[in-house]
Specification:
The protein is built from 10 helices and 10 strands. By secondary structure, the chain is an alpha/beta fold. It has a 6-stranded mixed beta sheet with strand order 6-7-8-3-9-10, with helices on both faces. Strands 2-1-4-5 form a 4-stranded antiparallel beta sheet, with helices on one face.
Length: 297
């Protein structure tokens, strides 16, 4: 019986069957392909996200009081990192250290290392640092200016655009902050006339106008109603592909909704940091579990 040609043979469904009727020509050629191997093909390990900012062995003192103890934490690029913990645990102090807001406090002292793209922020020009690492505070703090001038302020101060370019940048920033449709017809009105939620989104738009690489938010929704809070949360998820986000929050449900990873602080120490689903479903430290389940805090 004449043997069948190899190219006409149907593929075997038996993963353990490596026999072939005819051995094909093994001469290598530009068009040849590697023979399929039996068994599962090993997959390359997933590469960890590159850290945009990194803290190493950070300690912080208010005079003689030590507020932070040996904090080491990485912030992956284009991810949302939440910092949770009870009041007074040091999470806001740590957040404000990331763009040196604490420099303005008399008697404050920090040691350790905090880097942005590998560069020590303690050696950077502070104005340049704060343009690259923006900050949104707990309570909305719009300037006593028009909506337009609030967003344009940082661009003017940093000389980032010409006067003719400002309207387009202001519109873009307000759109990124999901506020444009609500204020496009009243840009010259006072920002103080906006609702609390609108003011907070305006502050976010003001921060985004200078295209920061990192955006820090210190409990941005603590004074807002649930509808305004939902809009801020949707905004954070929408803009994380444009910048790295670090948010301090007392609202654990909020951290679960928006954060890729979560760090738990207690008494000035970072107790645990992991993927958000791990922190909330299977924490490795008893202190974390006790806080998550409401035993304290």
């Amino acid at each position: 019986m004449t043997p069948m040609r190899a190219k006409s043979a149907p593929p075997s469904t038996d993963m353990n069957d490596t026999s072939e009727a005819i051995v094909p020509d093994q001469t290598p050629s530009a068009k040849s392909h590697p023979a399929p191997q039996s068994g599962p093909v090993p997959q390359a390990a997933a590469r960890p996200a590159e850290a945009k900012m990194q803290a190493k062995n950070v300690n912080f003192h208010y005079g003689t009081f030590k507020a932070l103890h040996d904090i080491s934490l990485e912030f992956p690029a284009n991810k949302v990192t939440a910092l949770i913990g009870p009041s007074g645990c040091g999470k806001s102090t740590f957040l404000r250290s990331l763009n040196r807001i604490n420099d303005t406090i008399r008697g404050a002292r920090i040691d350790g290392e905090i880097t942005l793209d590998g560069e020590d922020i303690l050696k950077m020009d502070v104005t340049s640092l704060r343009r690259r690492v923006g900050m949104v505070f707990q309570r909305p703090n719009p300037f006593p200016k028009s909506i337009f001038e609030n967003v344009a302020y940082g661009i003017r101060v940093n000389g980032l655009a010409s006067r003719s370019e400002l309207p387009g940048i202001v519109e873009k920033s307000l759109r990124r902050a999901a506020l444009w449709e609500e204020v496009k017809d009243k840009l010259q009105e006072s920002a103080n006339a906006l609702s609390g939620g609108q003011q907070q989104r305006l502050c976010i738009a003001r921060g985004l106008a200078v295209d920061p690489e990192v955006l820090l938010l210190d409990e941005p929704c603590s004074a807002l109603d649930p509808i305004a809070t939902a809009k801020i949360e949707d905004l954070l998820v929408a803009i994380k592909d444009q910048c790295t986000i670090v948010i301090v929050t007392h609202n654990m449900q909020q951290a679960a909704r928006v954060a890729d990873s979560t760090g738990f602080f207690l008494l000035g120490k970072l107790i645990e940091h992991d993927r958000t689903d791990v922190i909330f479903k299977n924490p490795s430290k008893k202190e974390t579990e006790d806080y998550i389940t409401g035993r304290f805090g």
